[in-house]
C-alpha cells in the first residue's frame, strides 16, 4: 500500500492552498548576501596523526616557511620529521554587513594524508575573498566531531576526523563597502522565479508603502524605490515581514533510488482509468532418486522434477472521474488498487505519457 505516499499527500492537503509566507522567506535583497572566504594554513599539536612529510611535501615547505618567519632558520628538509602537523584548507562565510573586529565561524579540512585533526590548533591563517584581499584571519583550537582508532589487526572510524570547525575562529579585518542608505532603490530577487508571485509581491508592497513604490521587472526581480518618507533600511524592515501568497508550479518529484514520491498540491489529471495486474509464474525444481528393486540388475539414478504454477491476479481498474482531479483523488485512486511505491512510479510515468498528468514530472 502507499503508506508513505499517503502521508506526504495528507500533509500537503492539510495545508491550505492559499497559505501565506513572509517576503523574507521567498526572496533575497540585492547586496544583502554572504561572501566566501578561503585560506591555507597549518594545524599543529596533533598526537602523531598529522601529515607524513614524505607523502605531503607541501606540508614540509609550509613548516620551513613558518619557522623562518618566526626566526628559526638554517633548517634542512631532513631535519624536520614531525608527525604532529597537518596542512589544511580553511573556509568561511563572511556575513553581510560584518564589521571589523566581529568574529565568524570557520571550517578546517585536511589537505594532506593526516588521519585525524583531533586535538590540533590552527595557527594564524589569512582568509581571502574572490578579489584576493584579506578579509579575516583565523586561529584557535579546533573541534572535531568524528574519531578514529586502530590497532594491529583492526580499526574503526566514525564520522570524518579530518574535517573540523572553530566557533568564532576568525576575526574580521576588512569590511565590504556597501551602504544601503546611499541607494535610491533596491531590488528583491525571488528564490523561485514566477510571474504570479512577483506580481503579488509588488502589489503587497504598494499597498503598504504607496502606489508605484514597487515594480515587477521580470519573474524573479521586483524593484522598490525609496519614496522619501523612509530610508532603504527602514523600508526593507517593513517589507520583509509582509505576508504574501506565493504561486507554485504543479510538479511531481520522483526519487527512483529510494522509491520516494512527492506530489504538489496543484497537480491535476484528466479523467483516466488505472489498472494494475498480471501473471505470476512460479517454477520449482526438485530431484528424486530412482533405485532398482532388490536382487535385480539396475543403477541408482537422480531424476529431476520440475513444477510450474501460473497464478493470474485479477485486474483492478480505478476510475478517476472529472477533468479536475485533485491530489487527494489521485492518491485515493492509487491506494484503492493496492499498488506499492515502485508501481506508483510506473503508473505516474504512464499517465504523463498519456497526456493526462498536468504537471512537471521530475525524476531525480
Which structural traits does this protein have?
single chain, 364 residues, alpha+beta, Gyrase A, domain 2, 3 domains, six-stranded antiparallel β-barrel, four-stranded antiparallel sheet, 22 strands
How would you describe this protein?
This protein is α+β, with helices and mostly antiparallel strands. It has three domains: 20-31 and 179-244, 2-Layer Sandwich (Gyrase A, domain 2); 35-172, no CATH class; 251-281 and 311-363, no CATH class. 21% of the residues lie in helices and 39% in strands. It has helices at 3-14, 23-26, 57-69, 195-209, 232-239, 327-336, 341-353, and strands spanning 21-22, 27-29, 35-44, 86-94, 103-110, 121-128, 134-141, 143-144, 147-150, 155-158, 163-172, 185-190, 214-218, 221-225, 243-244, 251-255, 260-263, 268-269, 272-290, 301-320, 357-358, 360-363. The strands form seven sheets. A six-stranded antiparallel β-barrel has the order 3-4-5-11-7-6. A hairpin with an 8-residue loop joins strand 4 and strand 5. It starts with a helix and ends with a strand.
**What about the largest sheet?**
6 strands, antiparallel, barrel
Ranges where pLDDT stays below 50 over 5 or more residues in a row are 1-16
Sheet with most strands: strand arrangement: 3-4-5-11-7-6
Q: Write down the Rg.
A: 33 Å
Tell me the overall shape: flat
Number of helices: 7
Strand content: 35-45%
The share of residues in helices is 10-25%
- Residue-averaged pLDDT, rounded? 80
Reading the helices and strands in chain order gives: HEHEEHEEEEEEEEEHEEHEEEEEEHHEE
Query: What is the total domain count?
Result: 3
N-end to C-end Cα span: 22 Å
SS elements, strand count: 22
Assign the structural class, choosing from mainly alpha, mainly beta, alpha/beta, alpha+beta, or little secondary structure: alpha+beta
